[in-house]
């Protein structure tokens, strides 16, 4: 086979792959603008914004979105602060337990969190934390901490320690040096950690589904599901519109991260 | 990588010896201890009780010794679920996501930008979506009245209810669709670090594309392959939402992986103690993979 025809074949194959991956998503777009949305992707018979209008109420979408913002934003902040503080000694000092600690953290990044939801629920019942947004936020923060610590430490290792020496000579404490010297240099990396924690928490369905029972406290992920599970006739157009509202922030954040740092870069911290 | 504590006045360094690492590390250690290690230890305790969601066993669970474990290992549902989990994981993670991700990364290498970006965006979109939205989109896609059947009908093929006629295949393909982006990104990053001169030299020596890949490229990206296999396996072991929305473990128990079985026993059948026992089994399997994973990355620490 000649080089050109094999190159065409690869091009065609990639085109088919792209189409197959995009196909299930088409429906979300077409149905959300369709007055009588079917279950298959189709050009809207009657183009409308009604679906969006109908789901845009405090109880249906705004409160769940707000709850999601509190949970995911809180988890991201807690996780980033704890990870930065924890990574600093690991990166800068010669500690005897450094290696075992890092192995344990690495090990924890691999554990399937789904597996602990039953014991977590049972533990939360004992601690009276079921239906507590604070408890759920802290749990979400803790589950993303291993990866956050790991990535943050890698970023910090990239900052030459000689920069801090100058600050130390001037009499700065370790935490002052961290804040004024190291932190400004790793802001891009740390914001990636924060955004990833946020995206993960925002998209997580199982955790709030198990830990938050009161509809008034549930985030958008669980809110959409209630919509889906109402039984009887499902208004597919509204479901699609809600899904788009709920997805939009994640897409925006993802674009921000991949624009500024490149898609592959974000993975190297966790993977390499 | 190791950075020493550097030249600081010895007296100061000693004086602050413990507090300078203990204080900053305390929040992270507390969170990890309470919310990650805590539940694991707690599941160890609960699995020896008859804890339930409601009734007397909810407020005052009794210690039942190894009863849950005896019951679990004699339970055909466990063995069935374990098997479904193996098929789901090998099919969707090891073969599907890993293989397809590698294939796409190899094929998009040295392609023009437009094609590369089009494929990248399509594959990554499925991955970036919140898991529930992705699951809805798939549910609609595979529905008897969904897009897939519309497409098949248009080319004259048989339409059917995929979630009913081929449920395990449907959730496997669903998970491939959802998760391949991760492997693709890992392999694109790995391949970008493979020097092209090596492959060119092999080409001059007369090696075909497949042989070049097998003997030159693959050995160089070996570590990435191992890491990726480990990670996608672990992620797939924990998949709950996708299956829950698509089939809820059914029809019957055709797609009941271990997480679904755990959920059913604990929350649908109210048996928290028994559910915790299943979660211990799932954790043990995950831990096994996580140890291998941490070991392959050992020299990085």
From TrEMBL, chain A:
Keywords: Cell membrane, Membrane, Sugar transport, Transmembrane, Transmembrane helix, Transport
Cellular component aspect of the GO annotation: plasma membrane
Spans through the membrane: 65-88, 100-121, 133-152, 185-213, 233-257
Topology class, membrane: Multi-pass membrane protein
Compartmental location: Cell membrane
InterPro entries: BP-dep_ABC_trans_perm (IPR050901), MetI-like (IPR000515), MetI-like_sf (IPR035906)
Keyword tRNA-binding in record: no
One of the Pfam families matching this protein, by short name: BPD_transp_1
Example of a GO biological process term: transmembrane transport
Any coiled-coil regions, as ranges: none
ABC transmembrane type-1 domain ranges (all copies): 65-257
Family: Belongs to the binding-protein-dependent transport system permease family.
PANTHER family: INNER MEMBRANE ABC TRANSPORTER PERMEASE PROTEIN YCJP, MALTOSE TRANSPORT SYSTEM PERMEASE-RELATED
Protein name: Multiple sugar transport system permease protein
UniProtKB/TrEMBL annotation, chain B:
Pfam families listed in its UniProt record: BPD_transp_1
Cellular component terms (Gene Ontology): plasma membrane
Transmembrane segments: 21-42, 82-107, 119-142, 162-187, 229-252, 272-294
InterPro entries in alphabetical order: MetI-like, MetI-like_sf
Keywords attached to this entry: Cell membrane, Membrane, Sugar transport, Transmembrane, Transmembrane helix, Transport
Superkingdom of this protein's organism: Bacteria
Main location: membrane
Domain (ABC transmembrane type-1): residue spans on this chain: 83-293
UniProt topology in membrane: Multi-pass membrane protein
GO biological processes: transmembrane transport
Compartment(s) of residence: Cell membrane
Family: Belongs to the binding-protein-dependent transport system permease family.
Protein name: Multiple sugar transport system permease protein
Organism: Saccharopolyspora gloriosae
């Amino acid at each position: 086979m000649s080089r050109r025809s094999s190159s065409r074949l690869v091009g065609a194959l990639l085109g088919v792959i792209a189409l197959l991956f995009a196909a299930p998503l088409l429906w979300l777009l077409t149905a959300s603008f369709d007055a009588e949305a079917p279950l298959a992707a189709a050009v809207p018979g009657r183009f409308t914004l009604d679906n969006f209008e109908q789901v845009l109420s405090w109880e249906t979408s705004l409160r769940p979105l707000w709850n999601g913002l509190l949970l995911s934003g809180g988890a991201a902040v807690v996780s980033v602060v704890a990870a930065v503080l924890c990574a600093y000694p690991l990166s800068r000092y010669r500690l005897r337990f450094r290696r075992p600690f890092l192995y344990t953290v690495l090990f924890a990044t691999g554990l399937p969190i789904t597996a602990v939801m039953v014991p977590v629920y049972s533990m939360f019942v004992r601690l009276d934390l079921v239906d507590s947004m604070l408890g759920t936020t802290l749990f979400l923060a803790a589950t993303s901490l291993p990866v956050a610590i790991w990535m943050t430490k890698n970023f910090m290792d990239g900052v030459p320690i000689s920069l801090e020496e100058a600050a130390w000579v001037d009499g700065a404490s370790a935490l002052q040096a961290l804040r004024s010297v190291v932190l400004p240099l790793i802001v891009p990396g740390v914001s990636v950690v924060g955004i990833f924690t946020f995206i993960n928490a925002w998209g997580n369905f199982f955790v709030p589904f198990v830990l938050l029972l009161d509809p008034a406290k549930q985030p958008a992920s669980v809110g959409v599901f209630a919509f889906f599970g109402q039984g009887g006739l499902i208004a597919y157009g509204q479901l699609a519109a809600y899904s788009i509202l709920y997805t939009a922030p994640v897409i925006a954040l993802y674009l921000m991260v991949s624009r500024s740092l490149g898609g592959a870069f974000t993975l190297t911290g966790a993977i390499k | 990588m190791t950075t020493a504590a550097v030249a600081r006045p010895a007296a100061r360094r000693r004086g602050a010896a413990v507090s300078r690492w203990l204080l900053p590390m305390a929040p992270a250690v507390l969170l990890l201890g309470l919310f990650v290690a805590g539940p694991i230890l707690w599941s160890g305790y609960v699995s020896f009780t008859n804890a339930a969601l409601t009734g007397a066993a909810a407020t005052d669970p009794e210690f039942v010794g190894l009863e849950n474990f005896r019951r679990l290992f004699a339970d055909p549902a466990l063995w069935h679920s374990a098997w479904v989990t193996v098929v789901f994981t090998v099919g969707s993670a090891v073969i599907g996501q890993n293989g397809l991700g590698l294939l796409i990364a190899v094929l998009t290498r040295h392609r023009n930008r437009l094609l590369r970006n089009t494929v990248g965006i399509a594959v990554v979109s499925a991955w970036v979506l919140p898991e529930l939205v992705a699951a809805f989109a798939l549910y609609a896609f595979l529905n008897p009245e969904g897009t897939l059947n519309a497409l098949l009908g248009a080319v004259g093929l048989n339409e059917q209810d995929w979630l009913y006629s081929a449920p395990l295949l449907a959730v496997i393909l669903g998970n491939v669709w959802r998760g391949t982006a991760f492997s693709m990104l890992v392999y694109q990053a790995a391949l970008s670090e493979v020097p092209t001169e090596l492959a060119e030299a092999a080409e001059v020596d007369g090696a075909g594309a497949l042989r070049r890949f097998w003997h030159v490229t693959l050995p160089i990206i070996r570590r990435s392959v191992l890491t990726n296999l480990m990670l996608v396996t672990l992620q797939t072991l924990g998949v709950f939402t996708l299956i829950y929305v698509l089939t809820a473990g059914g029809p019957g128990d055709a797609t009941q992986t271990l997480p679904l079985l755990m959920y059913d026993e604990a929350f649908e059948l109210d048996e928290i103690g028994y559910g915790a026992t299943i979660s211990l089994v799932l954790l043990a399997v995950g831990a096994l993979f996580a140890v291998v994973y941490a070991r392959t990355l050992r020299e990085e620490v």
